[in-house]
Every structure is written in C-alpha cells, then in structure tokens.
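Sequence and structure are no longer studied apart. As an example, we show below a sequence and the tokens encoding its fold:
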Amino acid sequence: MPPKRQSTEGAGSAAKKAKTVDPSDPPPEQALIRKPEAYDYICLCKPFHRWGSDGDDEEDEEDDEDEDEDEDDAEKEKEAPCDIGKTCVCFKPAAEHPEHPWVITNAATWKLRTLNIMISMRDPDAFGMYTYNDHFGYGILEMLQNLILDFEEAKTWKEQWAICEGTALFFARGNADPLWMVDDGEGVEAVISLIGTMFVTTLAMLDREGLLKPDSEAKSLGAVMAAFIRVIAEVGPDYGIEAGSLNAKVLAYAKKHNIELKGLSDIADTDNYKKYKEDADKLELPASDDQKGDPWGWKKALTQYKKLYGPKIGGDKLDISTWTSAERKKAAFDKKDPFDKQMIAAIKDGMIMQPA
C-alpha cells in the first residue's frame, strides 16, 4: 500500500479545485431518464476502452499496424484523435451515422458523468486531505454499490440497459483503477462478481423481450457486451472471479443471436478468449421464453451480498461533501476546511460539488 502522503498544497488551493454544479444543468439524473431523448443513441468515436484518448497511445499504434492500408474513411475516422466532439464524431446522433459501430445512449453518458462526479467527491487528495490510503478506492466501491441499487430500482429494460452501458464505459475507460488497490480483495471480488451477474441477468431479460438481435432497439449491444468481456477478462483472474463462466455466458448469447461483438480483435487470438468461446459452445442458455425471470440467480446473489456487506450497502459515508466542517478540518493537511462558506451554502441549497 502507498505510504501516507505529505501536504503539497494548502486548503486554499484545494478549494480552488472544486466547484459547485447546478443540478438542473444538466437536470438531476432521475429527471434526465424521463426525458424523451434519454434513450436516443449517440456516437463515440472509438471503442470504449480507448474513448477519450488522443490517438497517440501505444495501443492505438499497435491497432494501426494491424489495419489494412486501404482502410476506408470511416475506419480512419474511428482511429482519429478524440477531442470529445469538437471535430470527432463523439456525441453526434447515431441516426446520422448509421454505420458507426460505437454508440451509446444519452442516459448512459449521464450515468457515467454522475458516477464520476460522485466518485470525485470521495477522493481526499482532491481537497488537500488525508484519511487513509484506500479511501478513494473504497469510495469507488461505495458508488458501485449505489449503481447496483439503481439497477435494482430500475423499472424498465431501457433504464437497466443504460446502467449496464454506463458501467461498461466506466470500467473500460479505467475510471475504476483505484479500486484494484484496496486491501479487501474479497470485497472487490464480491462486487465485481455481482455486477457480472447483473449484466448476464440483463441479457436474459433482453432475450425474453426479443431484444437480443443484430437489429435490436438496444443498438449498443455488440459494443457493451464486448466491453464487459474485456473487463472481466482483465480483472477476473486477479480476484478469483470465474471470468470464464461469466464471459462464456456473454459469448453464448452473442452466438445464439448472431450479435457482432465490437472491439475485441486485439484479444480474440489469446488462449483465454479461445477458452471462453469453447466454454460458450458447451453452455446451455435458458430458453428465450423462460418466464421464471431470474435464470442466473440475480435476486439470490443480491440478497446474499447485502447480508454479507450490509444490511445497507452504498450510501454516501465516504463522500467528503457530506462530512461536517470539523471532520474535514481534522483530515485536512493544514487543518482548515477545504470548503469555504459559499461552497457549504451551495451544497445546503442542493448544488452538486465536484473538483474543477
């Protein structure tokens, strides 16, 4: 574990890193998901695991070498530097780019934005504070638990799918990396395994609804399924997670419904991926018209998780903006509250805080 860091900045400069955000711009997430455009699809210019990169990283260079020299303009656009929509295709309506492979709902991007804001409030470094080495990592775990509760409360398949999209993008972009450093490996294994069960449960639900198909209304199927496979393949073995079992289920659904998985060319020839495919070929999926509704044991898994890590999971106890001024002063390097009076008043008025 990393040693306790010494102060490099005072609370004054830490406070300058934070700003308040009017939750009506954009509106609160619960209001957003009721907007008509919430489930419209927009483009991302690159695969989830490279989205937001400048195109110069080593992985991009390796992919470029593998691409055919006479690739068409669409392929070149996909590999162009990402500037988050200034010149690239990011956030353009997917309907205007029907052949573009990397799409996601507006609701998923809002979910990702909210998740990242809430996680930033669980990072003591951002506010010139020290609590304990794994505070930030456990803050991410707390937010993942909140995400699971969001899924439990979701009323429609569109809401559940948007949560899965946002989760896939969150992990694929490396936003969860501090989580892998916490000292409770079993706790990490448990939450990632539960998220995996959440995802295959969603696929089963989409299967029952007739939405697992190449021309699905859930247009991001191929990209999101591939992103989950990649994440589980990367972190599963380190935490004793049955990566083969989870990924075999995802691959089996893709094969059954002829869904093209997008963005896996760099791992398709690995031994692990080949093993996932072999296991998928042997797997018997639940019938598409199975009315049981929970073929992968989501409800039992969630109940067991709450029993082990609850009774209440999630919450905001690691959110620094919910602490008292005295609590923040105690943890601050200079023993001053990194939140000034204006910021505290804004929070009381319902504003959302985030590092600038």
In short: Residues 1-17, 20-31, 55-78 have pLDDT under 50 and may be disordered.
